[in-house]
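agent> fetching stored inputs for the magnesium ion docking request
agent> found them:
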Amino acid sequence: MAEVTLVEAVAMALGRAMDEDPTVLVLGEDVGRDGGVFRATEGLLDRFGPARVRDTPLAEGLIAGMCVGLGAQGFRPVAEIQFMGFVYPALDQIVNHASRLRNRTRGRLSCPMVMRMPMGTGIKAPEHHSESVESMFAHIPGLRVVIPSTPSRAYGLLLAAIRDPDPVIFLEPTRLYRAVREEVADDGAAAELDCCYVMREGSDLTLVTWGAMTRETLAAADALAEEGIEAEVIDVATLKPLDEETILDSVGRTGRCVIVHEAALTAGFGGEIAARLAEKALLSLAAPVRRVAGFDTVMPLPRLEDAYLPGIDRIVAAGRETVRFQ
Amino acid sequence: MAEVTLVEAVAMALGRAMDEDPTVLVLGEDVGRDGGVFRATEGLLDRFGPARVRDTPLAEGLIAGMCVGLGAQGFRPVAEIQFMGFVYPALDQIVNHASRLRNRTRGRLSCPMVMRMPMGTGIKAPEHHSESVESMFAHIPGLRVVIPSTPSRAYGLLLAAIRDPDPVIFLEPTRLYRAVREEVADDGAAAELDCCYVMREGSDLTLVTWGAMTRETLAAADALAEEGIEAEVIDVATLKPLDEETILDSVGRTGRCVIVHEAALTAGFGGEIAARLAEKALLSLAAPVRRVAGFDTVMPLPRLEDAYLPGIDRIVAAGRETVRFQ
Amino acid sequence: MNAVDRFEEGSPSWPVTRYLDKGGSALQDIPSALDDRQTLAALYAAMVRTRTFDQKAVSLQRTGRLGTYASSLGQEAVSVGIGAAMDPADVLLPAFRDHGAMLWRGVTMTEILQYWSGDERGCDYAGPREDFPVAIPVASQAPHAVGVAMAFQLRGEKRAALCILGDGATSKGDFYESINACGVWNLPAVFVINNNRWAISEPVAMQTAAETLAQKAVAAGIAGVRVDGNDVVAVRHVVGRALEEARSGRPQLVEALTYRLGDHTTADDARRYRDDAEVSARWQEEPVLRLRNYLVARDWWSKADEEALIRQVREDVDGAVEAYLALPPQPPAAMFDHLYAVLPPSLAAQRALLEDGDG
Amino acid sequence: MNAVDRFEEGSPSWPVTRYLDKGGSALQDIPSALDDRQTLAALYAAMVRTRTFDQKAVSLQRTGRLGTYASSLGQEAVSVGIGAAMDPADVLLPAFRDHGAMLWRGVTMTEILQYWSGDERGCDYAGPREDFPVAIPVASQAPHAVGVAMAFQLRGEKRAALCILGDGATSKGDFYESINACGVWNLPAVFVINNNRWAISEPVAMQTAAETLAQKAVAAGIAGVRVDGNDVVAVRHVVGRALEEARSGRPQLVEALTYRLGDHTTADDARRYRDDAEVSARWQEEPVLRLRNYLVARDWWSKADEEALIRQVREDVDGAVEAYLALPPQPPAAMFDHLYAVLPPSLAAQRALLEDGDG
Ligand SMILES: Cc1ncc(C[n+]2csc(CCOP(=O)(O)OP(=O)(O)O)c2C)c(N)n1
Ligand SMILES: Cc1ncc(C[n+]2csc(CCOP(=O)(O)OP(=O)(O)O)c2C)c(N)n1
Ligand SMILES: [Mg+2]
Ligand SMILES: [Mg+2]
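agent> prediction call returned; pasting tokens
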């Protein structure tokens, strides 16, 4: 069993999926000889050849639209969008077609595609390389929106996403690509979609997060533990469709909840989770729900990236205040 | 003073704005001789000529991108997107450029553009003519998102939007275009942006909504009044930046809140409002917040449109249950 | 307004293929593969069928029994010619005005009416199972054709994807991205531009300064040709040849010159923006009479043939309308039935809300 | 891999304008407006300046004092030629690799460094106030050029918008939509395609089957020409003529053939995907030495000139770097300062959170 980073786990899952299913294709900009700008498709060209590992012209709308055609024909395209900031030209195809083809044709045609893309800050890249607009996708009926937070989760969820018969937006936190190594068995075992994962148990407070912010959130939970506050940490993992039970169950026990995300606060996905609590857990809530999120301003260029990103301190402070709230 | 429909009020505001400011331009598909498919630009070509009222090639990305160039050059383009379902090709320009140009250049260049588009169901048009994805725009820092609910509000808010120095997404509820007539003076008076409007006062319950759903919501409030429940009805009008004070103030008094919108529930803008309540009005809340919203499925073709749309009954039921909640 | 002039046969480097002149006289020998009564009569019958159906659909809309509908009046030759040129195994990716091609390929009139009545089941074609449904967002079907064609190439199948687009669609980026990609990969795809001279109220001159739409192929490094879209023989032939080329890995762009004789859709009133005189003049070029004249001149079509055809087509259309009107409505909860392959449990409550009639 | 062959002078219908051959010998008379020592020496100096700056920027990045940076090594002639051809009143809409043009137009080295260090203030150019900042999303600047050109047209000004795009950008829909729209409206815009043969790891053959990129103009019905992008004289001349045409209402597409001698950016390692031999061969064509050879041959450039220039440029670059390194950081709350013209009160709390250092 190899110790791998998250991006290596992605490559491993892609290789596995292509191995076991000849209908799986990989396409995108620089996914071939270059192996992807983050090396997520490294080695695939040599293993599977240029027919199945295809460098595309520089056109995200085309990439997404091709996937719809390939999907309708029974292929399982896995497309890479080089950075989330470049996904917008693909939105028309994702929203108006990929998410609707099955519904529109009453199941006659479908769209078993995966669109992978790195998201979020943390690598000090130029503008548009640090987007977190997962809530835009989470609003669209017919899509799945999945965000892994560890190498093994990335491996398992990506396999599940590729095998899933419907379109999946698979968001890979750039900041985690090489942050940690983990033992991941290349055993073809998928992880469960459509469910939250409890990363840490605790009875005083529920911290809900996903993607890269799981790291800061776990660190904040450790810091809170030193103050005697035991926080449960939930990794939402699949934003859509949302497994609200796990969250409601936890908050039902703790009565206190802080939601953490990197995306801008307003109309971010944290709002949806807070809303579910206000609707379905009001009587359990012993303190106001808090959101620790990105500011409602344009993600700054790298110099101020860290100032934008919700840090451990802000999470700890929000957790502390939430627990102390009477 | 003329009795006008909402779409006539839009045309009136456009004419007024073009009259008083030579930098105001109108552009889009079929906005010239045809006067727009809904007649929102009727008469403008004859009054202002083809240089200022411009039929564009069929390309929404181009339309939005041109506006960025025109805006940077000091013009105030008012673009029409024919239906909200066709706005996605423009998203790259809206999100990556229009909303960011001022910030990116530290104020050197800016983007005083308005993108108007009809939204929502109600006219039994084919697919993609019934979208309500306002929350996608509301998530983007640097934008204003404005939705009028009456002819006079449309007139005043559109003038304000055109005069505003920053990009405004101006969403016109198709269902209201010809639903009512109202006296609107063509006096050039703008309505206030960035604030909610209280459409009806009441002390038992707060109903929060916007756009077309204001009609059903007001009707529901009337029905509730017959049961002895006095509902306050708030028209959010500007979703971004959000005036949360008016909402918090009302719920602070009523302790009960139902949010109504046509867009799909999950990650819809109702989630943001419910979240604000869970964060900032928890102690005032005497009952769980309720959202009455579109289902999390693809907006069906016209035959099932009415079944998709949250109806008066659902609002009344939610209001009643919320007030009865102990 | 007469903004379409330069779209006539003007450009010498982009000649227009045509066999029958406006009046139906042959300008050159009809391609031998088409030059028999049966083939031409079938093309003629399909155009009559399409037009009859179309008129019925418009009248159903006018009487409140159909939703907004996009008529193909005057453009029957483009659509029927495409349908006839395709192999059953090819895949059609139509726009929203291509009823003739869909009907030829076996989509039923009832299905088409059901779709335009606002019922998704109309897209679950019993016939051509792999064909794409109508594309409403203009040009958005073009990249799907790239994907479909790539699927054929990957499987080594001798099939082609045929995508129909309007002249307005040639302004959209997805059109260019798609023809360009087909060039890169030598994909078996044919893009037919139905140049009916108008995109709602905008004449082609408002879409492009290009003298022809066929020449847009140059940008992609693929072949582009023009055809008289009111001459079904020419369309059938040129598109047929294009499909052969495509199946051999040479993607093609075909510009078919026709004219939208009707309103844009039933929601439109074209008199707001175009002269009646222009429309009347274009009636002189319309495709149905043109082919009939030719058939009659060759003694391949009699009054009796015509009457029998009309009777048959009316019967078919009436039968289809009857079947359409008798269709049971979808239950509201059906809106959840094909959202995902399996409805996630988290949506069950919403579905139940609808089933309770509480929706 | 040698996928770019057909992009050499191959296509007879799309000739490449060139004055100096690889070695710097004149192939034809230099346009008289440029044929003096001062003009050519200025072009030479600007290329040296650009290259020196570029190398410094890369080394700053390597030593952790700059963010990811896109070098223009080998492409100085395209960028400088454009800068020199433009009037100050024209507006530049660059991609992210066009430092030479920006510098010529008065953007300072310090500003460019500040931008690539991740500080928005680097886009608040003290010089060309109307020029657009660097566009990161490929081809997304093209429609801005349409808007800018339309503004000039509306005001009746004799100015042009000049938009620079990479070869990869010609695959994106916004490029086609923009050139097409300029054709429709006869807008004063020039689009220069910097064909440096690579888009990160993809050679041009992966972007298009078109034999040239200039021919993409045919799709838009506008003029398209090719120029040797390593011959600054040719670039200066061809782009200058294109700008004149554009200002008279005839939009232009110019394909400049050059080569990306360096990595895509400092985050890239080009040896992963392209042969060293290809790069070495291309070094024989690079633009700086080419012009120097010509100048020297004409006795317009001495060793002393060269030394003086190098000294001056180094001094300038060092001064700029010093100024850059001394720039005070933006306070975190600055991220709210230009979000809107006036910060909405509802955001004051978030801004305050940052100002408290609590962020
Ligand atoms: C992306 C997009 N924008 C706008 C519309 C609205 N619309 C429907 S049809 C049409 C004109 C299409 O013209 P053309 O492509 O020539 O096809 P035709 O209607 O003539 O068959 C427009 C603007 C749309 N459907 N899709
Ligand atoms: C829309 C978009 N997709 C992807 C990227 C990532 N990316 C940055 S540069 C580049 C290649 C650009 O190639 P080209 O246009 O030839 O310009 P060059 O880098 O050669 O100057 C890519 C794919 C991007 N910036 N924008
Ligand atoms: Mg048309
Ligand atoms: Mg390049």
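agent> quick read of the result: Chain C has two domains: 5-328, 333-359.
agent> awaiting further instructions
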